[in-house]
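Appendix B. Raw example, untouched.
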Amino acid sequence: MYESEIDDPSISDREVSLLSNARGGANSSLGELMLVYRDYLFALADDELGSDLKVKASASDLVQDSFVEAKRDFRQFTGDTPIEFQRWLRKLLLNNVANVVRGYRGTEKRNVAREVSLPKLNASGSILELASDDSSPSSIAIRNELFTSMQAA
């Protein structure tokens, strides 16, 4: 779906220069180069996350995590062109998306399909239904204290 953007031959001289400078150790050039692809990565992450997962993880957080990984692992990047750099960033992002999906859909305890909505509130903000009919520990203690004081009287 985004292949046409990746293979776009209109790579600017600026991107080539930024990549070259980043290879030479210029952190600011690496940061600027990553910003060139921020909107693309955001749109990709937003499309990849289902509506159920967008409440658990945001596209911007995934892009930011991918940029942190790119900065940390830049020495492992073996490509020579901005297109290869974009593909590498895309791979990092999709791996992060897969981790989120696996974390919320591939587990039983955190599976978003198991979530239920909170109970409804009345006009005063009180819960209409109690979660349990059992007495709370404090109400049991109060009841026992009253019973004991009545027996003593």
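End of appendix B.
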